[in-house]
TrEMBL record:
EC number assigned by the record: 2.4.2.42
Function: Glycosyltransferase which elongates the O-linked glucose attached to EGF-like repeats in the extracellular domain of Notch proteins by catalyzing the addition of xylose.
PANTHER family: GLUCOSIDE XYLOSYLTRANSFERASE 2, IP22168P
Location relative to the cell: Membrane
Biased composition (Basic residues): 67-81
Membrane-related topology note: Single-pass type II membrane protein
Organism: Ovis aries (Sheep)
Catalytic reaction(s) noted: 3-O-(beta-D-glucosyl)-L-seryl-[EGF-like domain protein] + UDP-alpha-D-xylose = 3-O-[alpha-D-xylosyl-(1->3)-beta-D-glucosyl]-L-seryl-[EGF-like domain protein] + UDP + H(+)
Pfam families documented for this protein: Glyco_transf_8
The protein's name in its UniProt record: UDP-D-xylose:beta-D-glucoside alpha-1,3-D-xylosyltransferase
Gene Ontology process terms (BP): protein O-linked glycosylation via N-acetyl-galactosamine
One GO cellular component term: membrane
Length: 443
């Protein structure tokens, strides 16, 4: 190992240790065995809403397994046992779930869609896990998949601990093409590839949707990307990140034989959509002078460009927004961070500043050795035992793994990958301390 790398490694380790020490110190000061010994004098009504808002944060420093915390801590001060969670699944206190839902009416849930085919089952589950680990708001998962994957997917999701399953509901759909001629569509595209284009038509009752590829990982609450919907101006109805930060060397500017959005095209691996607007809009196009509704446009558009497109539906989306640029909100690269953003040197400025918010391990990098930084993140989230302490069982091992990636260009900027995770943990930890210790100190 080079001297510089060694020094960087040592520095990282020291920082990690310092952070852990600091946090345990604060935990110690704030509330000796933090959440468990909430003063008996604290108003009891505070107990219920707190875990409801932060159901996943049993895994914080000082916190025990969530089986302890799901109950008002006063009542069962030392009841926690690691294995207790699954046994107690059926013993969910009815009031708890109700208060969680009461806080958030269904029209305020986050809707997250994914299309999982072939061998993408594990990836899909890890993506969904990252969404529930870090998010606060209740989510509805819309999972489109082949019949053969459905039972396993369903089973695994139901096996997650209670404190996590109550953060979401999931619906599993078959792959279908409800617009135009389904048989024709099936012939034209690989079955799964085009599915995302049809989501506005299939999910008729859903107002807005976050679509992600299976190889996406959330490194901060999904709530945060969902908020971008509110930033749409009156003509915008979808949001994506640029396909490349340096148009000159991006794929579209060099190779595309069809129109594409902007100077580098957009990447459809992370896509926010206001479906209500998409369903009611008329889209300009190269075929007829009047606008066309979304579902009436897809098939003719495909017919016209099928010999020129390479990436299937992403290319069609680029063509659509080339003709309708006022409809697209372009969000910065930190929301769809790919190996392209670091493998030739760091070129995503927003991620350098704010950290990676949504990681997109395309080109199969979670499963080979080409980008060990991406793989380390994937494995850290995949292997995290739900009920454990996030710092000890995810963040700390992740830092150690990163030390082995410093020989790659992506591995030289660990802080870019860790900044948001770190922030998320700190924020949740602080909330946690305030919720459980605060009442007494704030009165
Ligand atoms: C989507 O657009 C519709 C119509 O403009 C609007 O009423 C709705 O609030 C939008 N949804 C979100 C989440 O912004
Ligand atoms: C909304 O923003 C887009 C992209 O910046 C722009 O092209 C469009 O004109 C804007 N629409 C309105 C109504 O300002």
């Amino acid at each position: 190992m080079k001297l510089r790398n060694k020094a960087a490694a040592l520095l990282l380790l020291a920082l990690a240790a310092l952070l852990l020490a600091l946090l345990s110190l604060r935990a110690g000061r704030a509330a000796p065995p933090a959440p468990l010994t909430r003063p008996a004098s604290a108003p009891p009504r505070r107990a219920a809403p707190a875990p409801a808002r932060l159901p996943g944060w049993s895994a914080l420093p000082g916190a025990g397994p969530s089986a302890r915390r799901r109950r008002p801590p006063r009542l069962r001060p030392r009841a926690g046992r690691r294995g207790a969670v699954s046994l107690k699944k059926s013993a969910r206190r009815p009031g708890e779930l109700r208060s969680f839902q009461a806080e958030l009416p269904p029209e305020l849930w986050i809707h997250l869609a994914v299309v999982a085919c072939g061998n993408r089952l594990e990836e899909t589950l890890v993506m969904l896990k990252s969404a529930v680990l870090f998010s606060h708001r209740k989510m509805q998962f819309h999972i489109f998949t082949e019949e053969s994957l459905k039972p396993e997917l369903d089973k695994q999701l139901r096996q997650w601990p209670d404190s996590y399953t109550k953060k979401f509901e999931h619906r599993i759909y078959p792959i279908t093409f409800s617009a135009g001629n389904p048989q024709e569509w099936k012939k034209l595209f690989k079955p799964c590839a085009a599915q995302r284009l049809f989501l506005p038509v299939i999910l008729k009752d859903v107002d807005s949707l976050l679509y992600v590829d299976t190889d996406v990982l959330f490194l901060r609450p999904v709530d945060d990307i969902w908020k971008l919907l509110r930033q749409f101006n009156s003509t915008q109805l979808a949001a994506m990140a640029p396909e490349h930060e340096i148009p000159k060397i991006g794929w579209y500017s060099r190779f595309a034989r069809h129109p594409f959005y902007g100077s580098a095209g957009v990447n459809s691996g992370v896509m926010l959509m206001n479906l209500t607007r998409i369903r009611s809009a008329q889209f300009k196009n190269s075929m007829i002078s009047t606008g066309l509704a979304w579902e009436d446009m897809l098939y003719p558009l495909y017919q016209k460009y099928k010999n020129a497109i390479t990436w299937g539906d992403q290319d069609l989306l680029n063509i659509i927004f080339y003709f309708n640029p006022e409809c697209l909100y372009v969000f910065p690269c930190q929301w769809n961070y790919r190996p392209d953003h670091c493998m030739y040197g760091s070129n995503c400025r927003e991620a350098e500043r704010e950290g990676v918010s949504v990681l997109h391990g395309n080109r199969g990098v979670y499963h080979d050795e080409k980008q060990p930084t991406f793989k380390a993140l994937y494995e850290a989230i995949r292997d995290f035992p739900f009920q454990d302490n996030l710092f000890q069982s995810m963040y700390y091992p992740l830092q150690l793994k990163f030390l082995e990636t410093v020989h790659t260009l992506c591995g030289r900027i660990p802080q870019v990958f860790l900044k948001q995770i770190e922030k998320t943990m700190k924020r949740a930890y602080e909330k946690h301390v305030i919720i459980h210790v605060g009442p007494n100190q704030m009165h």
